[in-house]
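Module 6 notes. Inverse folding takes a fixed backbone as the condition and produces residue identities as the prediction. Think of it as a translation problem where the source language is geometry and the target language is the twenty amino acids. Below is one complete input and output pair. Work through it position by position during the lab.
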């Protein structure tokens, strides 16, 4: 995926925003971030 290895902003449904580096995809399809988060639902924006 083009997302892996890039800085992303994740906007969650509860209004929380996380900015971190995307590390990979878990066995169940969650986006793994370098802050320890595992995201299953959210809006992802690639940052430059």
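Target side of the pair, the amino acids:
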């Amino acid at each position: 995926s083009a997302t892996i290895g890039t800085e992303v902003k994740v906007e969650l449904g509860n209004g929380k925003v996380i900015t971190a580096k995307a590390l990979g995809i878990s066995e169940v399809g969650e986006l793994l971030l370098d802050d320890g988060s595992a995201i299953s639902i959210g809006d992802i924006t690639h940052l430059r």
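Reference fact for the lab report: The chain is about 0% helix and 50% strand.
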